Amino acid sequence: MLIKRAQMFKASEITDPTLYFNRREFMVGAAALALFPRGAEAAAPPAGQPLKATRNTAFSLSDPATKFESATTYNNFYEFGVDKGDPSRLAHTLKPRPWTVQVDGHVAKPKTYDIDELLKLFPLEERVYALRCVEGWSMVIPWIGFPLASLLKRVEPTGQAKFVEFTTLMDPEQFPAQRKSVLNLSPIEWPYVEGLRLDEAMHPLALLTVGMYGQVLPNQNGAPIRVVLPWKYGFKSAKSIVRIRLVSSQPKSTWEKAAPNEYGFFSNVNPEVDHPRWSQASERRIGEFLRRKTLKFNGYADQIASLYAGMDLRKYY
Ligand SMILES: Nc1nc2c(c(=O)[nH]1)N[C@H]1C(S)=C(S)[C@@H](COP(=O)(O)O)O[C@H]1N2
Ligand SMILES: [Mo]
């Protein structure tokens, strides 16, 4: 996403497959290290541990899944750095246990859930979703999780709850880019905050995710829990969430704060509305060479379009 710093992000970086493959080779060894960190805490389920879930075919694409190796070595997770390889190289410092998620705000039953308690509350589903990054690439990932709506209903939103705000962990010990010494290199403010309208958050497509590819979620993909919103650009899908707050006014999201003219609150995938610096009409599916057309709402228009009926999507980008 890259804002502004030419040396951090070049347009060629997202479109040139050769560059990607070179980088990828370089990353493989590093990723293996991140998956098997030395000195991992006994309490944490190691990334790579199998996680059982039932495939929900009603919510699954038939497109072939992106290679696991690509999905775990080509990441955006700015808490580890702005390069695609930084998360897999550095994510062993993130400790997904112990972990709690505070669910509060305008709800009748606010509660701080221990992650392992949360995992027992809802049956885990596998859903194959495409994730479309605003930069112009996409991946197809078999996620494991449960509907965000299931958790929200449990805490009973009150009539004042109109929006949902997600906050990622803030901890400079675990996230190198949050350290004071490197703060001035970061294009965004910490902690990472994202938001949805309540009706978007309650939509059955919105998934709280704890695994992928039949395994516990790797740290670089947002362990131990992240949201996945397949009709929106990838940056809306906040990783490593510690708080879900029901609020009455529209949250200011991190990327909106960083560059409001480039990244709106809604950020629905829309090939008809270009980013100010590049077209959104097509995308590169990681692993494919020819670009493919980007679909409105990332292909989920049948299910999602009614949420935005009557809205000018150029204005509410
Ligand atoms: N906390 C946090 N969440 C984040 C990001 C981030 O930098 N920090 N990057 C976002 C972006 S831009 C994308 S495209 C997706 C990438 O998810 P993946 O690495 O699992 O493919 O995560 C999103 N969630
Ligand atoms: Mo992204």
Protein architecture, described:
- The chain is an alpha+beta fold and 317 residues long.
- It has a single domain (7-308), classed as Sulfite Oxidase, Chain A, domain 2, CATH 3.90.420.10.
- It has helices at 11-15, 17-35, 68-71, 86-90, 115-121, 148-155, 198-201, 254-258, 301-304, and strands at residues 54-55, 100-105, 111-114, 125-132, 137-147, 163-168, 193-197, 207-212, 215-216, 226-228, 241-247, 282-285, 292-293.
- Strands 1, 4, 5, 8, 9, 10, 12 and 13 form an eight-stranded mixed beta sheet that branches. A five-stranded mixed beta sheet has the order 3-2-11-6-7.
- A hairpin with a 4-residue loop joins strand 4 and strand 5 (137-147).
- It is globular.
- The two termini are 16 Å apart.
- Mean pLDDT is 89; it is low at 4-42.
- The structure holds the ligand Nc1nc2c(c(=O)[nH]1)N[C@H]1C(S)=C(S)[C@@H](COP(=O)(O)O)O[C@H]1N2 and molybdenum atom (MO).
- CATH fold description: Sulfite Oxidase, Chain A, domain 2
Return the average pLDDT rounded to an integer. 89
Order of helices and strands: HHEHHEEHEEHEEHEEEEHEEH
Main sheet record: 8 strands, mixed
Share in β-strands = 15-25%
Please state the overall shape, judged from the principal axes of the Cα atoms.
globular
- Helical content class: 10-25%
Structural class by helix and strand composition: alpha+beta
Question: What do we call the CATH homologous superfamily?
Answer: Oxidoreductase, molybdopterin-binding domain
Number of domains: 1
The count of DSSP E runs of length 2 or more, i.e. the number of strands, is: 13
Unreliable runs: 4-42
CATH architecture annotation: Alpha-Beta Complex
First-last Cα distance: 16 Å
